[in-house]
Design a protein that fits this description.
The complex is a heterodimer of chains A (442) and B (486). Chain A contains 24 helices and nine strands. With 442 residues, chain A is of the alpha/beta class. Chain A folds into four domains: 18-105, Alpha-helical ferredoxin (Fumarate Reductase Iron-sulfur Protein, Chain B, domain 2), CATH 1.10.1060.10; 110-168, no CATH class; 184-310, Glutathione S-transferase Yfyf (Class Pi), Chain A, domain 2; 316-438, Rossmann fold (3-Layer(aba) Sandwich), CATH 3.40.50. A five-stranded mixed β-sheet of chain A has the order 1-3-2-4-5. Chain A has a four-stranded parallel β-sheet with strand order 7-6-8-9, sandwiched between helices. In chain A, helix 3 packs across helix 6 (91-105) and helix 18 crosses helix 20. Chain A is globular, with a radius of gyration of 22 Å. Chain B has five domains: 8-98, Uridine Diphospho-n-acetylenolpyruvylglucosamine Reductase, domain 2, CATH 3.30.43.10; 105-221, Uridine Diphospho-n-acetylenolpyruvylglucosamine Reductase, domain 3 (2-Layer Sandwich), CATH 3.30.465; 223-340, Alpha-Beta Plaits (2-Layer Sandwich); 342-437, Alpha-Beta Plaits; 440-477, no CATH class. In chain B, strands 12, 13, 14, 15, 16, 17, 18 and 19 form an eight-stranded antiparallel β-sheet that branches. In chain B, strands 5-6-10-8-9 form a five-stranded antiparallel β-sheet. The chains are: A alpha/beta (442), B alpha+beta (486). At the A-B interface, helix 3 of A face helix 2 and helix 12 of B. One iron/sulfur cluster is lined by residues 33-36, 47, 50, 75-81, 91-92 of chain A.
C-alpha cells in the first residue's frame, strides 16, 4: 500500500503533484544544466535540490517559510533541467505549483504586495490598462520628462538594476497593435491558412513593431489573420508569481475567446507566453468543464517560427547584409523544444550570416519578472550572456520579448552596439527589402 | 572523535570559526539549507550534515580541516553528489566539505599530454575544453556531464570507454591532497615516481584517506576514426555469448555495452529514446576506434560474430548524430528508470565475462523471489554488471526488500568469482557486503592502512568497512591511534 502523507505542508488547491516529484531518482544529471547551480554550486539552488525540497515539504519535513521559499524563488523557471533530465521530471510545473502554495503561505508584504497587486491583478489582466501604461511611457519618453529625470539624476532613488532597465527601455515607437485597427486581416496572395494571433501584453506595449512584423509575415505567407479584441494577458507572469487563481481566470477567458471561431492555428510570437498557452491543459487539469477545450487550445497554439516552417515558409528575396547570432529563449528551446525552426528562418534570408553563440540555450536572466525580483543572479547571468555574443555581430536575434529587454539592458550596460531583434523582424525586413527592390506584394 | 551530533553551543562556535575561514556566504547550516544535502545519488541511507562549507582554494581546505581536526569534529569531502553508494552522505551529522567551487582548469600541457584541474572541475568540461586541439580525457562515467574529477578520483570511476583505455586510476598522474590533520601534501606528478604507488592507493579511497585538492591527469589524442555498431537480440544468452566472442577473437573494442529488456523499456520511456523494437530481449552497443585503416575489417568481424549468434538486426551508425543518439540513450539509462519506477537501487557487481548467462539467470530468480523488477545494464566488455533494482520507497517494506535483493545479487557475483563493486564504490551501501570477498584479517589490514593517513577516522568515518560486529574495531576504539606524519 502506498502511504500518502497526510503531514504535507502543502495545504491549498493544486498542490505539487506527487507523480511529478516521485519521478525524480536523484541522479543529478540536471545539475550542470541549471544556471543558478552553475553560478552558486548550491545543491538547494539546483533542480535536483529544489525537487528534493518540494518532496520534503510534501512529506511534512519542511515548513513553507522564507528559508524554503528562497531557492524556489531563485529558480528561473528556464527548464534547462527538463532538457537534461533523463526521467522527464517536470521541474517547471513543480516549481509553479509550489509557488502557488507559497503565494498563500507567505503572502507578499509592504511595497512588494502593492506592486504585486497593481501589476498582476490590476494592470496585466486588463488590455486597456496595459495600453495606458504604454501611453504613459511614450509620453514620459517623448515629453522630455525622461531627459529631465535623467539630467536631474532623479532616477538615483531607484535600485541600480531598475536604473539599468530604465536606461535600456526601448523607444516605444508605435502604439499597440491590439485595438488599433480592425480584427480581421486578409492574406496577401493565395490563401493557405486561417490563424488567430495573440498579441501578448509586454510584446504589444513595448515591441508593437514586432507584432506588426509578425502580422505582415503571416499575411505574406498566405494567412488570413484574426486578432480578437477581447483577448487578455496569457497569465504567464501570474503563474510565475504563484497567482494560479488569476492565471486560471485568464486562461478560461482566452480559451472562450479564441475557440469561438474556427482557425487552423493560434499564433504567438513570445516564447514565454507560448509555453504557458501550450500548457493551459495542465493549468486547468482539475477543471472538468475546460478539460477538452483547454487541450484543443493547447494543441492549436503554435510559436510563429514553428508554424511558418511547418507551413512552408515563402523564401524572402530581399538581401540583408549583416552578421547575426541567435539566442535560444528558454521558453522556446527548453519548454517548447523549438530550436531548429528559428534557425531555418534565419538561414533562408539571403545575405544574412549566422554565427553560432556558445551555450546559446543558457538563460539570459530575464525569466519573466526574475530580473526585477532577483537582480543579483539576473545580472550575473546577463554578464555571462554578453560575453558569449560572438564578436562582430550586427544583431542578436531571439524569440521572446523578456529576453529582448534583458539583452537591451546588457547592451547598454556593457557599452555594446548590437541591435536586439526578434527573428521575425529580420524576416520581415528581408520581405520589405524585396518589395523596395521590386514592387509591392499583391 | 566526536561521534554524536554537536550541541548547539559547539555548533555555533564551529560555524563562527569556519565562517572566518571561508566567509559567511560560503557556509550553510540552517535546517532548510542543508536538507538538500541529506543524500547523494544513493537515496536509501540519509543524514543531515551539521554544516556544508565551500572552500575556494587549497589553503581554505587546509584551514577548515585543521580546525575540525583540532576540535575532533568529523567531516566528509563531497563533489557533485552523484555517487551511487552513499560515500558523500553524512550519516552522523558530519560537516560536509563541498569542493564544487574549486572548479577551475588550471593548466593544460599539450606537449606532455597533461592537464591540471581543481577537484570540483566537471569531467566532461575537460574533454570539451581540449576538443578543439584534438584531445580528450578518456574516463567517461555516464554521469560525466555533472560529476567532478575529484569525485571520480574518490570512486576510481570508470565508464563505457574504459574497456580499452582504463579507469580513472590509469589516468591520474599527480595529486595534491589535504590530509585529515590539515597538512598539504603532493604525490606523483612525474611519470613513474619511485616508491609506493600512493596515487593508486588514494584513487578509489572514497574520501577516507585525504581530501584531493588538485589533480594532474593524462589527456589523450582523439582517435582518428570511431565506428559504432548496434546489435539487437531476441535472447539474452545470444547477446552475452556474442559479447564474449568479440573479445575472444582478439578485438579490443573501445566500448562494449549491453542492456536487457527491462532496461530497454526504461530508456525508451525516458527523454532520449532510440526507437528499439518493443519485444527485444537485449541490445549490444559495440564501438571501435583508432587509425582509420583496419577499422572496417574489425566492424565486419564484429557483425559476423553477432550473426553467428542469431542477431535479429545489426548495423553500423550512419553518422556522428546517430552514434550520439545511441550513446545519449545508453548514458541516461539510470536516470530514465524514473519513468518506470519511483526509486531504484543500482548494483555494481563484477563477474568473469563468461559467467554472464548464468549470473543473469540467477538475477532473474532473485527478482522473482523478492517480487521486484530488475533491469540490467552491463559494461559487457569488462564484466561490470549494473542490475537496477526497481522499487517504491513509499510502499511499506519495499526499501528493505530492495536492499536485501541487492545484497543477494552481489553475493551471486562474488560466488561466480567476481566482486561487489566495479566503479561505484563501497560507501555505506556495501560495507557489510565487503565480507563476501574479504575475511576479517584482510579487512583489518586495510583499516590499518587507513589509520596511517586518517588515524581517528575523522575523514569520512563509518564508510567502506563493515560495522564493528567483532572485537577488531572494538579493540581499535579502545586504543588511541597515534597520528603519523606522512
Ligand atoms: C546517472 C548516473 C550514472 C553514473 N554512471 C557511472 C559510470 O558510468 N561509471 C562510474 O564509475 N560511476 C558512475 N556513476 C557514479 C558517480 O557518478 C561517480 O562515482 C562519480 O565519480 C562521483 O563523482 P561526484 O563528483 O558526484 O562525487 P561524490 O558523489 O560527491 O563523491 C563520491 C565519493 O568521493 C569522495 N570525494 C568527492 N570529492 C572528493 C575529493 N575532492 N577528495 C577526496 N574524496 C572525494 C566522497 O567523499 C565520496 O565518497 C553514475 C552516477 C549516476 C547518478
Ligand atoms: S528551471 Fe532553470 S533555474 Fe529552475 S531548476 Fe530548472 S534549470 Fe534551474
Ligand atoms: S535529472 Fe531528473 S531525475 Fe535526475 S536528479 Fe535531475 S530532476 Fe531528478
Amino acid at each position: 500500500m502506498v502511504k500518502t502523507s497526510n503531514l504535507s505542508s502543502f495545504l491549498w488547491e493544486d498542490a505539487p503533484d506527487e507523480n511529478k516529484f516521485s519521478e525524480c531518482v536523484h541522479c543529478g544529471m540536471c545539475l550542470e544544466a541549471c544556471p543558478t547551480y552553475q553560478e552558486t554550486g548550491l545543491e538547494h539552488h539546483s533542480p535536483r535540490g529544489r525537487v528534493y525540497l518540494i518532496k520534503s515539504a510534501a512529506e511534512g519535513k519542511l515548513q513553507l517559510n522564507n528559508y524554503f521559499k528562497e531557492p524556489i524563488d531563485s529558480c528561473l523557471a528556464c527548464r534547462a533541467c527538463e532538457t537534461a533530465c533523463p526521467s522527464g521530471v517536470q521541474v517547471g510545473a513543480l516549481i509553479e505549483e509550489t509557488r502557488g502554495q507559497l503565494y498563500h503561505a507567505t503572502p507578499a508584504k509592504g511595497a512588494g504586495r502593492v506592486v504585486q497587486k497593481l501589476f498582476l491583478r490590476d494592470i496585466f489582466p486588463s488590455p486597456k490598462r496595459m495600453q495606458l501604461l504604454g501611453k504613459m511611457t511614450r509620453l514620459y519618453q517623448k515629453s522630455g520628462l525622461q531627459r529631465s529625470a535623467r539630467k536631474l539624476k532623479l532616477l538615483r532613488v531607484l535600485p541600480a538594476h531598475l536604473q539599468e532597465m530604465e536606461a535600456a527601455l526601448p523607444k516605444l515607437k508605435t502604439s499597440p497593435l491590439l485595438g488599433r485597427g480592425g480584427e480581421l486581416y486578409s492574406a496577401y496572395g493565395e490563401k493557405r491558412a486561417t490563424v488567430a494571433m495573440i498579441t501578448g501584453c509586454v510584446m504589444d506595449v513595448v515591441y508593437s513593431d514586432v507584432n506588426e512584423a509578425t502580422l505582415n509575415v503571416l499575411r505574406r505567407n498566405g494567412c488570413d489573420v484574426w486578432i480578437p479584441k477581447a483577448q487578455k494577458c496569457c497569465g504567464a507572469l501570474h503563474l510565475h508569481a504563484g497567482d494560479r487563481e488569476q492565471a486560471k481566470q485568464l486562461a478560461k477567458h482566452n480559451i472562450d475567446v479564441f475557440l469561438s471561431n474556427e482557425v487552423d492555428a493560434i499564433i504567438i510570437n513570445a516564447a514565454g507566453c507560448g509555453s504557458t498557452l501550450k500548457e493551459y491543459d495542465e493549468l486547468l487539469k482539475n477543471d472538468v468543464r475546460y478539460a477538452e477545450r483547454s487541450h484543443l487550445f493547447a494543441e492549436k497554439t503554435k510559436d510563429v517560427s514553428e508554424f511558418l516552417v511547418d507551413l512552408g515558409l515563402i523564401a524572402p528575396k530581399g538581401k540583408l547584409d549583416m552578421k547575426v547570432t541567435y539566442h535560444d529563449a528558454c521558453h522556446l528551446a527548453h519548454a517548447q523544444g523549438i530550436r531548429q525552426a528559428p534557425r531555418e528562418i534565419l538561414e533562408m534570408i539571403p545575405g544574412l550570416v549566422v554565427e553560432a553563440m556558445p551555450d546559446s540555450d543558457r538563460c539570459c536572466g530575464s525569466a519573466g519578472i526574475y530580473n526585477i525580483t532577483q537582480p543579483e543572479m539576473a545580472s550575473q547571468l546577463l554578464d555571462r550572456k554578453m560575453n558569449d555574443i560572438p564578436s562582430g555581430c550586427d544583431a542578436v536575434a531571439m524569440g521572446n520579448p523578456g529576453c529582448m529587454m534583458q539583452f537591451q539592458v546588457g547592451v547598454v550596460k556593457h557599452h555594446r552596439s548590437e541591435q536586439i531583434v526578434h527573428t521575425i523582424q529580420l524576416l520581415n525586413d528581408a520581405y520589405e527589402r524585396e518589395d523596395s527592390d521590386g514592387g509591392m506584394p499583391t | 572523535m566526536i561521534d554524536a551530533p554537536l550541541d548547539e553551543k559547539r555548533k555555533q562556535q564551529m560555524i563562527d570559526a569556519l565562517s572566518r575561514v571561508v566567509g559567511k556566504k560560503s557556509i550553510l547550516y540552517r535546517y532548510e539549507d542543508v536538507m538538500a544535502y541529506e543524500c547523494d545519488g544513493y537515496t536509501i541511507h540519509k543524514g543531515l550534515p551539521a554544516a556544508v562549507v565551500f572552500p575556494s582554494n587549497t589553503e581554505e581546505v587546509a584551514a577548515i580541516v585543521s580546525y575540525l581536526h583540532q576540535q575532533q569534529i568529523p567531516f566528509i569531502p563531497r563533489g557533485a553528489g552523484t555517487g551511487l553508494s552513499g560515500g558523500a552522505t553524512a550519516l552522523n551529522g558530519e560537516v560536509i566539505i563541498s569542493l564544487v567551487r574549486m572548479n577551475k582548469l588550471l593548466h593544460v600541457d599539450y606537449d606532455n599530454r597533461r592537464a591540471v584541474v581543481q577537484p570540483g572541475y566537471i569531467n566532461l568540461k575537460l574533454s570539451n575544453s581540449i576538443a578543439s586541439k584534438g584531445y580528450y580525457y578518456a574516463p567517461d562515467p555516464s554521469s560525466q556531464a555533472t560529476c567532478t574529477i575529484g569525485g571520480n578520483v574518490g570512486e576510481n570511476a570508470g565508464g563505457a570507454h574504459c574497456l580499452k583505455y582504463g579507469v580513472t586510476t590509469n589516468h591520474v598522474l599527480g595529486l595534491e591532497v589535504v590530509l585529515p590533520n590539515g597538512q598539504i601534501r603532493r604525490f606523483g606528478g612525474t611519470l613513474d615516481t619511485p616508491g609506493y604507488d600512493v596515487l593508486g592507493l588514494l584513487t578509489g579511497s572514497e574520501g577516507t584517506l585525504a581530501i584531493v585538492t588538485e589533480i594532474t591527469v593524462r589527456i589523450l589524442k582523439k582517435p582518428q576514426e570511431v565506428s559504432t555498431v548496434l546489435a539487437l537480440f531476441d535472447k539474452v544468452t545470444d547477446a552475452s555469448q556474442a559479447a564474449s566472442d568479440i573479445i575472444a577473437c582478439g578485438i579490443i573494442p573501445a566500448a562494449l555495452e549491453m542492456m536487457d529488456a527491462m532496461a530497454i523499456h526504461g530508456v525508451e520511456s525516458g527523454n532520449y529514446p532510440v526507437g528499439y523494437p518493443k519485444d527485444l530481449a537485449a541490445v549490444l552497443i559495440i564501438e571501435v576506434d583508432g587509425i582509420a585503416a583496419g577499422l572496417q575489417e574489425q566492424i565486419e568481424e564484429i557483425m559476423q560474430v553477432c550473426k553467428n549468434h542469431h542477431v535479429r538486426e545489426v548495423r553500423k551508425a550512419k553518422d556522428a548524430a546517430e552514434r550520439a543518439r545511441w550513446w545519449a540513450n545508453r548514458k541516461t539509462a539510470f536516470g530514465a528508470m524514473g519513468t518506470i519506477s519511483p526509486d531504484y537501487l543500482v548494483q555494481d557487481g563484477v563477474i568473469p565475462r563468461s559467467k554472464l548467462p548464468e549470473v543473469l539467470e540467477r538475477i532473474g530468480q532473485i527478482s522473482k523471489q523478492y517480487g521486484l523488477r530488475i533491469a540490467n545494464v552491463f559494461h559487457a566488455g569488462d564484466g561490470n554488471l549494473h542490475p537496477l533494482i526497481l522499487f517504491d520507497s513509499r510502499v511499506e517494506g519495499e526499501t528493505e526488500r530492495a536492499v536485501e535483493a541487492g545484497s543477494a545479487v552481489l553475493k551471486a557475483c562474488a560466488d561466480a568469482g567476481g566482486s561487489i563493486t566495479g566503479e561505484h564504490g563501497v560507501g555505506v551501501e556495501k560495507m557489510e557486503d565487503m565480507r563476501f570477498i574479504f575475511n576479517d584479517i584482510e579487512i583489518e589490514a586495510q583499516m590499518q592502512l587507513r589509520d596511517v593517513f586518517n588515524p581517528n577516522s575523522l575523514c569520512n568515518p563509518h564508510k567502506m568497512f563493515p560495522k564493528p560486529a567483532r572485537c577488531v574495531e572494538m579493540k581499535r576504539l579502545s586504543r588511541e591511534v597515534p597520528a603519523v606524519n606522512i
